[in-house]
Each structure stands twice: as structure tokens, then as C-alpha cells.
## 1
Amino acid sequence: MHFKIRNRRGFWVTILVILGTGLVIGTMLLRNNVAVPLNQLAIKAAPTPTSQTIGTVNRGDRVQIITKKRQWAQVVYQQQKIGWVPNWLLNKHSQVKTASKLAETTIVLDPGHGGHDSGALANSNQPEKKYTLKLAQQVASNLQKSGTNVIMTRTKDHTVGLKQRPRLAAAQQANLFVSFHFDSAATPNSGTGFTTYYYHPGASKQLAQSINNQLGHLGLENKGVKTGDYLVIRDNSVPAVLLEMGYMNNDLDFKRIKNPNYRKQAAAEITAGIKEYVNDHY
């Protein structure tokens, strides 16, 4: 059963008593009672998108926030039921109208290099770091339109240590990690194409395959899915891939890399691959 009392400051406080358990959830101020801003928002048994869905709420339904954990909110819904929802999806300013598996996901995007680490250089001396950031930002924009909680290892041209990047994914308890790079060959104009790398078998390999499956309209050779001993994916505790999206020191590859339309198409296909993986495994 549940009832309301007025506290000393005049706020209504909801007291919920579940008979037989003696569980009392109280002192939840009215300011923690929020309207759901989108439809088909799944209620999860635990604060992770892979946990069991135990209910659904829709736009305009009210939920009472009890506590927050791992960027998720534990809520009371339908007056007496309790579960978890992504806290970022309770933001009334969200542009998302309908929830999805992708919207429930936290993804770390890692633009390679930055700051004093230029990465590979084009034959014109333009640095890799400039284009990894541009591509990652485009993927971030695509994912955010779906409601995804996107975390960037860097958002501007500054140095980020290699070990910091996988640690960020662990600290934020992310669900996926994608690192963006462009390749280079020992001899200019001798290497071409793009490659999708993973280190750990299982989920990381499956994520790599899902993304590579979608990379079909870029005008470069698809070198497929390969294992790669790169620290940012080797030392990662979540499914992680590293994408080499063309050769900086191949003039024809670089002509595409610096073209916004190429990056837009690549970002669209990478986003589609991430979505494929999430829909298939969550």
C-alpha cells in the first residue's frame, strides 16, 4: 500500500510499504518525481542494458527516483513497482521520442592520438589526430540522436595517455569502446584500405564483425576483421574495437579521408554496425 504525508517544508512525501517484507521506501521529495519524456522506455531489473526487462513506461508516465548508480536511476513506477532506467533518458530535453536498445547504451568513443601525439602524417604533413577527432565526433552525433550516452576520450586537440583511455571505459562502466585511427605504410602510396581490429575473442570480435559487416560503400578496400595487439583494446574490460579507416600517406586514401562526405558515410556505417551489435546481443 502507499500513502502521502506532508513534511515540515510543505513537500508531499510518498511512503511506500510493501506488505510481508516490511520494506519501507520513504522521504522521496516531490522534486524526484518526474514525467517520462519518451515512449517504450524499458524498466530493467539491474542498472545495465543487458539485464532483464521487467516493465515499460511511456511518455507522460510518472516515476519516482529512489537512487542513482552507474548513470542509471532506480525508480518506483506504476505506484509500487521498482526497477532501473538510464538516467540520461529521463532528461526532459531529450530529442528522442521512442526508446531503443541503442538508447540504453553507454559507449566510449576514442579519437586516436591528440596534443603532442600527431599520429600518422599525410604526404602533405596533415596529422592523423585531426581526422580521428572529426570522424569520432560524427559518430557521436549519430549515436546521440538515438539517445545513446556517449563519452569521448577527448573532445579537442589535447594529449590523452594510452592507459587513460581503457580506464575511462571501466570507470564509466561503459558497454562498448570504439577507437578511431587512420593507417600509414612504411612507403608512401603503398598501403590502402580499412581494417577492423579486435583483441579479445567473444564480444569484442562480434562487435568488430558487426561493424565491418556494414562498411560497404566507402570506395576503399575492406581488409576485413583482424586481431590487433593495441593497448586501448587489449587492456579494455568492455567489448572494444579499433578502426583503421584508410591510409594517411596514400594520396588517394587521404583524398577521401579529408572529404566530409567520406567521413559522414563512414560514420553512418559505423553507427549502423554498432546498432546491429546492440540489437543482436542485448
## 2
Amino acid sequence: MLEKIKDLYTENIQTQIAASRLLPEHIVNAANKLVNCLLRGNKIIVCGHGRAYANAQFLVANLLNRYDLERPSFPSVLLNIDGAVGSAIVADNHVNTLYQRQFNAIAQQGDILVVMSPTAGDASIINILNCAVNKDVSIIAFSGANNDHLQGLLTENDLELQAPAVKESRILESHLFTINAICELIDYKLFTQNS
């Protein structure tokens, strides 16, 4: 088991090294897009597929509460799969419309949709991406190396943060680091850069 743990560390470190070469500019662009969205008075709408839902929750917690600095809350919404909201939507509609119905009720032009989709092809994610395009809402998509299903859905106004891994656990770990980096950059740009 000790060898297995060492292998897991090695795999994680190699993924992070690859990400450090591929993602910094994209992370800065994502942070800038989110800062500009907030400064315009718009909101950040977040959803996650499968286990990535936990990362989506974490991002919204950082935005609504705080990341590192004590600061005002940022307007952000987690599209919900828990409790009565998710249950009611799924009971009355197809599960693929779970995010779509919530998104259509709250999204406005100028908002940003952040989608966590580490593995390919969930229909509820495809549906919400199409809704975002129709509502002229910019998209930041967190994905993995095998996410061809996003091709053709994202426009030149959108941004994909693709973790350089195919194993879902490594993708989620990389996404969590990216979330933390983006939140730190948002705080830095809004509250400390010009101090």
C-alpha cells in the first residue's frame, strides 16, 4: 500500500507539472473574465457533473463566503441537484433538463456559466451549454483530456480549462487547484493589486 500511495503522489505531481505548463494563461484569463463579470454587476452561475459537483460547490462557497481575504460576497449561484429543487425537476421532467430549467430562470446576458465536466458526454451539461449560447452567456468549462464533447459547443468568447489527465480523480484534483488559483487571483485583482 505504501508503494500505491507513492504512485498516487507521483501521478498527481506529474499532472500538476503538465498543468503548470499548459494552464497558467488560461487561469489568468478565467480570473479576468470573472472579475469583469462581477464589476459589471453580473453573476457567476456554476454547475458540476457527477463528482465534479463537489468542486462546483467549493467554487461557489469561495465566491459567496470568501477565499482568503475577508471581503464582500460575490453574486454566484450553484445549480442544484440536491434536495427538493433537484427532486422536483427530475420528477416532472427528464433528468437531462435538471440544470437547464434552473439556468433559464436566472441567467441574464453578461453572466458567466462555469461548468465542471471532467468526463465526456453528460446530456445535462450539453443542454446547459446550448442554453448559455442561446442566452449569450459566456462559458468557462473545466474539463479533462478526453473531453471532445465540448468541441463545437464553445465559442471564441468561451474558455476551456482542460486538465492534462484522463483519470477522473487526477482531473478533479487538478480542477480543485485551478479553482483555488482563480479565487486567489480574483481576490488579488480586486482587493490587493493596487494596495
## 3
Amino acid sequence: MTAARTDPVTAERPVVRILAGVAGRSLTLMVGMAIGATDALAAIHARNHPQPALAPQPVAVGVSGGAIAAAAIALGTTRAQARRIAIDHPEQNVMGAKNFRSMLTRHALYPQARIRDLAHTIVGDRTFADFALDPIPGQQAHQAASSLLIPVFSAVHGTLLLPRDLPRLGLSDLPVADALVAATRIPGALPAAPGLEDIFDGGCQFRVPHDIFTPHPALILDLYGPQPYDSRGGLLFPLLHPALPAIRSRPRPFHNQTLRESTIFAHQPYGAALTSPTHAPEELFDTGYAISTRWIHSRTDQQLLNIVDPHIIGLPDETMTTDRIQTTA
């Protein structure tokens, strides 16, 4: 994937860049991690800028269920608001009941999933145009720098990045709630968004599309640990939906040390995204929030250069990326 323009054209509000990874049925944990990360980084920025200043603007990429977490932080959803949404929309209500007949006939194991209801609770009727940074009159959604970037997988075009690639779908804009349904459409499990029947989960090809933010530093949130470094589940895609090709390799590139040092790992068992949570939504949210805040507050300013621009932590913008140092385990 090629990099997308993600920075505002004004210098008035600082930016923090966050990639919320695959979440699946552990979505509540990932939302807690995302909100915790933004709160912790905002606190560090406020500590290092004693004069009244705007809080950092999250520019978020969300993969699969992580797209819902990304939308929440791009909008500035508060901890209390996000926790309330998690409690009001428990995972079993969002997914609905399994229907094996539907899996055979409609390629949707959870045909009554309420992903759009959850998405609409978070983003309302907003379209991608509403997430534009420094919008210019007459500018289309795909032309603007955006605070929300959502990878999706097209059966026709391969991986696309919304809103940048909206024209490839014949669209000038799109309700973000529909984009979130499409981005979380696990092959064989969840139904399509209306009008986006050939669009699937953004993690089908790239599980950790970290290069979207290149060359800027960014924070990555990962449900698992560094390993495995690859996922072979894409080989089953043609069995799950006839429109999909087999994808031999879906890399999780955490063998890269710099990338590991820029990632908060939740260390859930591999495959947890596909299993029902065993804890209450509020407990999952609080756990994710604590994972991120502890990780960020345990880092020194120099270590934080792996994930934020220097001015976020009160250092000159001229600080070189070579000043970043390795974190400790």
C-alpha cells in the first residue's frame, strides 16, 4: 500500500497517528486500548506544553474491527462515552446468533449482525467528508487529508484505502457507518454493506498496514503479541466466499524491531478475535484502557519518539528520528 497524506495543512493542532489493528470479537478491548492511547498521549502533550493549547488530533487507521476503534478516536470520543457504548452494545448483541444455513446460502454465518447499528451509534450520519482535516470548499472527500483512514479489500481491486480510493469504487463520498460494515466484513461470517457487496474486511491482505504513515512515527495497537509473523488463513478465502481469491501470506511484520518498539501488544491468545469474550464489556474496555495508558506512561520522552513527533513531547521539531532509542521489554 502506498502512503496517504495524513497531516493537516495548518500547524495549529498537533497530530498523533494511531493504527488500531484487527479486533474481531475483542472489539471492546481494542476500543479501550485506542481511547487509552489517545488520553495518555494528550496528557503527555499537556504536561509538556503548559500554555493553553489544543489537544492532539488523532489521525487513525483502523483494520477490520479496529476501524470502529479508529473512528471513535478520530471523533474525539471520550472515555466515558466509549465505555457507555461498549456496555450498551455487548458483543453477543452485535454479532447475533449463528445460522449455518445462511453461511451456505448467503456466505454469512451471522446474518443478523448489527455492525451498522454500533457504527451509527459512534459516527452517526457522518460521511468521509466530515473527517477532512482543514477542508477546502469544493474539495471532494478523497482529495482531503483525513483524520480517519480505513483499509478495505475489494474482490476486484485488492486492498483499497478509504477515503483516498473512493473513486475506484465509483463513489465521491460514503457514509462512514457503511464503510465500517464493509471494513469489518469477515469473509464467510458477516453480510455486506448495501451497495458494497464486493468489499471485505480490511485485514484480508494486510493485517498491519504500518507503511500508510511512512515516514512519520506512529503508534500501533495489536491484539496479540509479536508472533506469529505471518497468517495463512487467507488460503481459505475461496471456500468462504466465491468472489475472493486465495491469499497465501498476510504478514504481521513484527520481526522488525523498530515496529515492535512502536506497538502496544495486548498479548491475547492468537485467534482471540474469532472467539466470544469471557468477560463483561466494561471489564474488557477497562483492561484495554489500562494496557495502553500503562505502556505509554512507562516510556521516556526519547522512547516516545518511536511513536510521536518531537513537538508532542515538548522537543524541537528538528529532532531527528535517529534520536529514537530502543525500548525495553
## 4
Amino acid sequence: MEGEWRKSILVTGGAGYIGSHTTLQLLLDGYKVVVIDNLDNSSEEAVRRVAKLAGEYGHNLSFHQVDLRDKEATEKVFSLEKFDAVIHFAGLKAVGESVAKPLLYYNNNIVGTLNLLEIMTAHNCKKLVFSSSATVYGQPNEVPCTEDFPLCAMNPYGRTKLFIEEICRDAHQADPEWKIMLLRYFNPVGAHSSGNIGEDPRGIPNNLMPFVQQVAVGRRPELVVFGTDYKTKDGTGVRDYIHVMDLSDGHIAALRKLFETKDIGCEVYNLGTGQGTSVLEMVAAFEKASGKKIPLKLADRRPGDPETVYASTEKAEQELNWKAQYGIEEMCRDQWNWARKNPWGYGSPETD
């Protein structure tokens, strides 16, 4: 893949949490990467740090601040470079906010994706890896979730992921030249082992680990645990947490399959560990990794939160030759390393 044969990948939302870690892995794998991001919930500092971490490969990264809803600006990026494939992370992702502002979510996530697909079609770039989510399973009747489970999203955020999956399936149906990987993530946590890039949500975090991390560094007084009366081992919700580096490697594996397999069509894969971990187990593991006590405030269940969700990962293991390598100890260790080095994420107390 040296020289002019180096494949060029467009990463939308590449300044975000999963996008930045995947961009780094792509660079280290020898790909040329162009990141576009509107920096709505991310930081250009993440892109700078990725370039640095990539060392001699850092020069293969370029960045454009572009919103996918701005069709002209997106089109311009495609006219500058011919892309071999696109990895599409860009999207708003807070469940609570999506319930309060559904139109914002439909506009940002769906209109942005439609623009992207139309421009990709016009430029004859028809290989796509899409960042979907386990939320498309809604409240599954059984676990582990397999890829052929009935789909039912419980909130506008989840519905945007589900609708985009359907749009991708329809696009491929109409034009078999499209080769699409739909990756359903479970619960990404952790950070790069350097501690230089990690998750840095704006405002109040929606996911467990950034919240725990902010309590540990003194940014928040306590962790609110929603629901302690579930029929689980300790009464708290059970989820499938996956290390962000494992998740990044899953994207590389999916991309490789797109390039190597002739008739791929539109395929869907779960990316998780296949293990369920409760909220309290995760908190205990983080306390152990950080040596910090996390004060808890117990609260009622959140509407729409399922009790237990974890992945069946057999399909990804067999077809992508990919399997998660890290357990919750490593996830918490790396999360704490990032938090300790960057208590205010990419910003400072003033910008919070």
C-alpha cells in the first residue's frame, strides 16, 4: 500500500471519540485519511493529537471543518480527492437530547447521511462503513442480541440509526454496486493507551463512563445510578462494554472485508464483547483502577432503558476475523489514564 497505491479513506466525525481512535488505527495501518467534522461535539485538538500519535504516518492525515448538511462544502471535499471508501461516524448521539429535540436529530443525522450518500454516488465512491448502534434492538426479549433480531428503536436517536440502516439497505437494493457494512456498537469505553486521546463529551455526559470519570477527577460530586431494581445480579442495568481500541480494530476489519470481498452487499455486524457487565460492577472496576471512591446517588429507572443488553459476536468473529481483546480492567485502566492526564478533556475549566 505504499506510494500512490495507498488507499484514501474519508472519515466523517473523525474528531469525535470513536472517530479519532479509528483514524489513528487507519493511519498506522498505512491508509491516507481525510477527516471531516463540524466540531459540534468534538475538538480539532483530537485531530492534532492523532496526527502526533501516528508519528511518521501523521502527514497522511488532513482535516476539514465541514457539516454534512452543507452539501456544497461536503461536495468540495470530494472534488479535492478520490476516496476508496467512507467510514461514517458523524452524528448527534445523546438519547435524552434526542427525545427533547427530535427534529434536530432527524435533520442532523438523516439529512447529513442522505447528502453524503448522494455525493458518494455522484463521485462513484460506493464503499461505506456505517456507525450504527445496539439501540436498534430496543428492549430485546432475550440476550445475546444476534444480527437478525427484530429491530425497534425506543427513542429518536435510535430511530435515526435504524432509518439510516434502512436507507443503506434500500440504496444497495437499488444499486448492487454499493458495498456497505453496518456496524452495531454496544457500549464503547476506554481510551488510547497513551492517554492522549479519549472521550470528551460536551455538557453533562449521557454515558456511564465519562460520568464516572468526571466524578473521579472532581468535576461532578456523585454518580447517579438509574434503576436499582432490575432483575439482574445486583439490581442495576447490564450492558456490553467494549474497549474503543477493539471497536477501532473492528472498523479496520470491516474495511478490509469491503476491499477484499467481491459480493458483499449490505452486511450488518455486532461489535461488542459478548459479555454483560452491570453498572455497579463497572463502577467497582473503575474504583479499583483509579484508587478513587465514586459516591453514588441511586435513582429511579430511566424510561426506555432496557434491563440487559449484550451482543452475540459470532458473526463478526467468523466473517470479519475480529474479536474484542480487552476486558473491563483494561477499559477502566485506560479510561482513568486519559482522565488523569486530561481532567478537562481537550479543553480547560473555562471552556466546560
